[in-house]
Design goal:
Two copies of one chain form a homodimer. The longest helix of chain A has 20 residues. In chain A, 38% of the residues lie in helices and 18% in strands. Chain A has 433 residues and is of the alpha+beta class. Chain A folds into two domains: 308 residues, Bira Bifunctional Protein, Domain 2 (BirA Bifunctional Protein, domain 2, 2-Layer Sandwich), CATH 3.30.930.10; 97 residues, Anticodon-binding domain (Rossmann fold), CATH 3.40.50.
Amino acid sequence: MTGLNPLKGFRDLYPKEKGVQNFIFEKVRSVARLLGYEEYDGPIVESMDLYANKSSKELLERQTFQITSKKGNPLVLRPEMTPSLARMVANKASDLTLPIKLFNIGPRFRYEAPQKGRSREFYQADFDILGTNSIVSDAESIYTIINIFLALGAIEKDFIVYINSRVEMEKYLLDLGFKKEQLKPLLNAIDKQDKLQKEEFVELLLEIEKNKERVKSLITFLNTKTVEKSPYFLKLFSLLDTYGVSKYCQINYNITRGLDYYTGIVFEVREKTKDEGGFELKRALLGGGRYDNLVSDLNKKLNIPGIGFALSDVVLIEFLQNKKLLPTDIIKPVSCLISVFNKETLNKSIEISNFLRRKGISCELYQDENTKLDKQLKFADKKEIPFVLIIGPSEIKINKVKLKNMKTGEQKDLSKEDLLKILNIKFQVTNKF
Amino acid sequence: MTGLNPLKGFRDLYPKEKGVQNFIFEKVRSVARLLGYEEYDGPIVESMDLYANKSSKELLERQTFQITSKKGNPLVLRPEMTPSLARMVANKASDLTLPIKLFNIGPRFRYEAPQKGRSREFYQADFDILGTNSIVSDAESIYTIINIFLALGAIEKDFIVYINSRVEMEKYLLDLGFKKEQLKPLLNAIDKQDKLQKEEFVELLLEIEKNKERVKSLITFLNTKTVEKSPYFLKLFSLLDTYGVSKYCQINYNITRGLDYYTGIVFEVREKTKDEGGFELKRALLGGGRYDNLVSDLNKKLNIPGIGFALSDVVLIEFLQNKKLLPTDIIKPVSCLISVFNKETLNKSIEISNFLRRKGISCELYQDENTKLDKQLKFADKKEIPFVLIIGPSEIKINKVKLKNMKTGEQKDLSKEDLLKILNIKFQVTNKF
């Protein structure tokens, strides 16, 4: 017996839910086009090798969907896009005009326990700039993110971009007296902070560094927000200021991002709550950073640095719902339903539907010639279709069609040409009745 | 060592190839909206059970990508969309206003040998009408198909819709003296015809029916194109006539479609060659039919008939290339590149890019402040960006920007406001210089 529900962690998107997803990605796409990102796509199935060294083998084997090829090679459903992009860029580096700005929107898969904000299949939009390690591309990435959130209707009080840099952090940590070999464990510990109690976090740090004073100075440092010591951050914030977006950004030394491949700036977007100092969503709405070695790891002859970020529909939908930013009229119905009076008048209804559609007016022809008109009107009502056309024997006799306004109930006999005029300016029609 | 190529049978879509796919599906989507189809989506991973009884178990196990869930259940990457749609409709039948017209565009997977027109991952557009078995929905489906091909730029001489019906065929076969238990094997044999030599086909028929005269009469019948004996076909073609699309359609009794779940009309689109009677592509460009039991197979209490079809991007791209219907300017570049003269003028370039983008004008800011202007101009040239803005110290001094037309080489100093005017009507600009 086949179950009727989708598999655990997977989603059925009925027209309403698909409409929400389309709303989000149409906004994302419009920002991409405005800012000159070009769309690409890669395979959903990749060799498991591609992800090795990017995240721990255990994580890779435990949290991915795996397929065994007929030849026995381990394949996975892509958990993220960046490794595929790096592979594609490495493969055709000589054909590409660098620097290049690319974006992709598509499904990703993670075999983890489904929970709020996490599903096993989700859509992600990825934005990347490859072929430059200029600070301009760092600032442009942040600017892109902010444009996306603004396009979705969010404003300053809704979100914040937290910025840090792995390079700068390492300098700071060395300044605080930590040793080189402690840097990576420290950055990883800081990344895990969100999931830990404060005491647990301190314990974790003490495992890496026994000197309590040094750990204390680190914790103090993590909560500072000044950038004075770093020429990089000073320059970056000056550029963000010129871009007009610095008010959405804040230094946050607690952000180090989990992925091992980041080599410079890292950033996250978090939801802001009404109370500025108050609780913020644990989950990042978006994450990204600079990865200057991802392409050269695949082909040592290539030096193609990159920076990028990804945002998922599942997390964004939650955010937009929280902030009441999802429009209520997600599904735009057709302009009118052309009803079918009976079998004899069917041809006339087809003719009218054909006439309107050829003029580019979206309409629905009722899909059954044996259904009573009454039921067809109820159908239009349920579907929130604003008008119903009635073409019965009496209308045919005078060579007209009857247009019924489903909101007001008013109806009017019209010639084909007058009908066209009204539907062409359909948002004014209700005033005209 | 990770390979740089995608897995066998999978595709990397660089911006040009993604542009081709977008071109196709934007046309498909516009037809869907015009005709009142609503978009939905289902999971890419489904339980293998969902496809059982729909196609042979052997085929299912051999030609699908399989994943074993952590609980040991066999899962597959969806090879087609219709079973997922039937499951979704069965699951929420009471919430849906029927009849409903639905479409989906998304990836499908088949683990078969890659060849021309076949890949292991491809995108398919599926269109379906559920909740009615009216002949109107049969005609509307054919009308939808023809609108898609016309929207893609194809005309009458490019394609033909072959129509048959499993129900009508069974009647014909009984009339020819075949027995009830021979019907299914006969329809399957006729479906395999494309892949067989004529003699092999006759042999296959003789295995089912020993009477040579009867087999001969069947072969004669298969090549007729008249519909006189069938009230269903007469009505259907009369409706297609009213829809204005009968000239694109032809009865073809050789079309029976392989999928077991079809219960009525079946159809295919084939490419027409210049020579009307000549060779036609073996592969169907599109296939579909009526499936009245797919939903009730999942829930016996439901009687929700359906009809639908699917078309794949891989096959369509080949067709459009053959017919020279793919536009040459698939990638629309940004309106202009804002170059960066040097580190000191970077802020000015950011300001101008910000100014234009806020006005909704797509533009690219060069992503490196250390690159010589010369190289930036070459970049714009390679990317076919029509204009480059130059904002150096001399332009800044007079509070202007220099607009360079990359085609003519002409350049002009402009105020921000004049620049905006020109880019707003950018297709007239070349005449104005």
